[in-house]
Amino acid sequence: MGDPLVIAGKSYDSRLLVGTGKYRDFGQTRDAIEASGAQIVTVAIRRVNIGQNANEPNLLEVLPPSRFTILPNTAGCYTADDAVRTLRLARELLDGHALVKLEVLGDAHTLFPNMPETLAAAKTLVAEGFQVMVYCSDDPIVARMLEDIGCVAVMPLASLIGSGMGILNPWNLQIIRDRAKVPVLVDAGIGTASDAAVAMELGCDAVLMNTAIAAARDPVRMARAMKLAVEAGREAWLAGRMAKKPYQAQASSPAEGLIGKTA
Amino acid sequence: MDIRLTINGAERRFAPPITVRGLVGEMGIEGKRIAIERNGEIVPRSRYDETALADGDRLEVVVAVGGG
What we know:
The structure holds two protein chains of two kinds.
Chain A: E1 5-7, E2 10-12, E3 16-18, H1 26-36, E4 40-47, H2 59-62, E5 69-72, H3 80-93, E6 99-102, H4 115-127, E7 131-136, H5 140-149, E8 153-156, H6 170-179, E9 185-187, H7 193-201, E10 206-209, H8 211-214, H9 219-239
Parallel strand pairs in A: 3-10, 4-5, 6-7, 7-8, 9-10
Antiparallel strand pairs in A: 1-2
Helix pairs in contact in A: 1-9, 3-4, 4-5, 5-6, 7-9
Chain B: E1 3-7, E2 10-14, H1 20-26, E3 35-38, E4 41-43, E5 58-66
Parallel strand pairs in B: 1-5
Antiparallel strand pairs in B: 1-2, 3-4, 3-5
């Protein structure tokens, strides 16, 4: 195939990144991620539940960092300071691991990103040696600012986190893709396989999703559907689609040799 | 006299002296993959033994959980 996704100098065969939240249990988490073929999986960082059963299984035992690239996120952070602290903890937790997903939210209702706080956090994190993949609005100017700061990937939303509304503004995603020199990942809003395929057909480098898989009736089957959709969309992008010819029908079969005509 | 520590937002009392290593033992999370911040600064795992806790310290103790 020879078409790797390269993020911060590291190559990945899969262009589907998946979250690990909202699954029924760790068994389903593992099965869905296996079916998705994803190599990069996101995790959240949360306070230890004090007094919890010491034998309770740990997510990182189910998804060993030796096998998956663990991408700690800052989901739920509303300030640059909280996001930076969370990722410093994540780096310690993951033995110095530098690749992270930055997201700073601006509003609990829409979960839209707060871009001024995101830009501030990105500056600090890049200066501290983190490799920052950043959740952002689908604004090409903001995407360029994040790239200029040194983020290793920009990840504009397709629509609201967890909404499954699909790609609301394909034109903005395309503008971001056309101008960016770092990988562009669609993050948030994917609802079903065709959304993922469209993202890839727009030329995006990869897709990150969680709820679209975890909230499907059969998450493991949807994980496989997403794997195929991302692959199909990527292949279509590389193949180069035919030109659209509005209102110009063109038969695929020859016009000559039809029966019942006078010679 | 006991020292007061705020751990993950809740105040708890411990008999001094207590190190970060001792606290991890008291919390029953020895050997788990965790990370600790003390008063806003990361405490590297290699320094748990030598880091003594003081009255009023604020600690955050975290793990990785499922998320998107």
